[in-house]
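Worked Example 4.2. Consider the chain below.
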Amino acid sequence: MSRSRLTGIALAFLAVSCLAVPSAEAATYGVTPSGSSAVFYVDTTDWADIHYKLNNGQQLNIRMTVTGGRNQFAVTGLSAGNYIDYNFTYWDVSCACARDTAWTRYTHTGTGGGTDAGTGTPDAGTGVDAGPPPNGDAGPVVPLFTSATALEPATVENTSTAIITRVGDRVRDRHMREDMYQAYDHYLKLYFEKRTHWIEIVDEVAKGGSVITVNLYTIYPYDSPDFRAFFRGLNTVAEYFHNADFVKVNDYKYTSSVNFNAKEGRAIRVGDRMELEIGVFLQAPVEGRFNYYSTGMLYMVGQGGVVPFEGQGSLRDSFPLPQKALSGGMTTLHTPFSNEPDNRFLQMATNLAPVNAQPFVEGRRLHHTNFRDGSHSEPDNPVFSAHANKLGNNYVNVSCISCHKQNGRGLPPATNTTLDNYVVKVGKVNGGTVTVDPALGFRLQPRAVSGTPEADVRISSWTTTASGTLPGGTAYSLRKPNYSFLNVTPTNFSPRITPQLVGLGLLEAVPESQVAGLADPNDANGDGISGRMQTVKDPETGVTRMGRFGWKAGTARVKHQVAEALNSDMGVTTNVFKTQDCGSSQQGCAGSSTELGDSELDRMTRYIALLGVPARRDHSDATAAQGETVFTNAGCAKCHAPTLTTSQYSAMNEFRSQTIRPYTDLLLHDMGAGLADNLPEGQASGAEWRTAPLWGIGLTAGVSGGEAYLHDGRARSVTEAILWHGGEGEAAKQAFVNLSAADRNALLKFVNSL
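Applying the procedure from the previous section yields the following structure tokens:
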């Protein structure tokens, strides 16, 4: 799509990496007629894209090919009088920035000549569309889940006499509503040993009966556990109407039943809100504490399945969350009661299957394990000696949690300190093909177990690229990082800050066909948005998959994302990636191995996949509702798609047939020169990024201790992140800029409610 060049007030909000006057070193470009063809060129061997319309038709956006020492692309089959409007986006090594040239018209004469005003220097940053060749369905993508996928057991069973619900759980420190302690969402010492269980709710009322039986299954003997149901909260914040001991069936099964709704003073009936909780006492002898609480759950009688809920009224009585608040479908967490804002990304999915309760906590232990010395990141937990000394000689950090603090977004470190919560991807680019950097591999790893690290990378300073005041008086200042390197300075590199981790299992379960349906690589509908599907090679099977994870959607599966992080960030090998990340000139890292076994990798994968998504907040607030309308009208929802639906064939039950609200289309979009780097990845050019999900964004400050958005953490607020949008996001950004102060604040309140 074409876009007019920005003038006047719009220029104040231009977010580009090269501003104002083009440098003398900028590449020349233009077009050479050849018979019935026209050969367009940019005099550079780094990446370059052409955007063009033939006879004012549909715009095409093409990755050019390096031929004869320059980027070229030929338009063929031209006749005299045909005209082509075109411009280029290319990487300029002289300023380490992406440049956009002015739009120019070429008219073909049909005699080997033509008119062309397009030779010269570029206009930096008009934010036009850029991208590799059109690729809407990305070719023969192999789906992750089909009717042939082996399914894990369903957690809700419908029989002739009852609806049976089964859900996994872990122990807790205090009651859910005891916000005076702030001790419900955290994890206690030895949380991974003997301290998970699962609950079975046999609802005969749903089938005309009068009793609900609750069975408790444990992995370690419990000593007279308690069963509580129907929240009361009159004398204490954690009071229930129904209080009973479970009856022991054997060391690993306990049972209790209820047929009376003491809250209402009558028999239980369909539609009742039965909040329940278990009091846990471990059978002695046991190391550490023996008494615990459990997760508060809400069961709607006659419905089946536990439901995400919120507290209403002065007592904060439990009511199901409305559909619009269920960001992660039935994996959504209940609204918090215990005032622990830093722990919102640490929780099990609400609908956790029994089979995943113990793997979840064991995966969490590995996530928190230092692979150098085996220590746990949280106090009083034993050294995991089986996983000590697995750290590769070259690494970024010692554990997953060292980068993914509280599973939230990373914050840029102080200037001139090592980037130890970033992945800095590197490579050699030749004609759009990325090959290994001989001195670094594909990742810059700034630390070493022994010897001199391969290199170091730091943010040396920040450059203010634009500043001003938005209509209504909101001041802003946009900044971008400048990097310095020690030992090796890569020619092509892409720093990526730590993203948040919640909801990944749900995104993996979104069908490829649904994402392809959102793609519009040639902007056929003329709305200025041309999202494209990323495709990647499956490292285990070699088939082509749809990319979903990472800043440029470079990974297809949660398992592969975890295995890649283990390998490139910590130097820990698995059966997915058996060799360490090394360049051809590096010493001491050759050979292959499997340091972390398949079962450990599976547990880590399940932990990451099954992190529950926080519920939307302020879902009934009038200003936030107004902001949702403004968000859509401004064009934000064209990329940040509000809802997706997961596959009925997802292997894990928790993710099957869920309506989720991640606010992403999982597609690549050209975000303009200001956000471009010079390292392509798969189908993605330097200017293309996957639409980042927005769920949980309003919890960032509480979880991470500050705010940092976009791929390199440059944006310190949602407002700054929006003002950095260019390319396909330019129109939405300008709409945001031109909003009234009231509408802009409403939009921000809506985004921060997600």
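Confidence is low (pLDDT under 50) at residues 1-25, 111-139. The domain at 17-116 is CATH 2.60.40.2450 (Immunoglobulin-like). Compare this with Example 4.1 before moving on.
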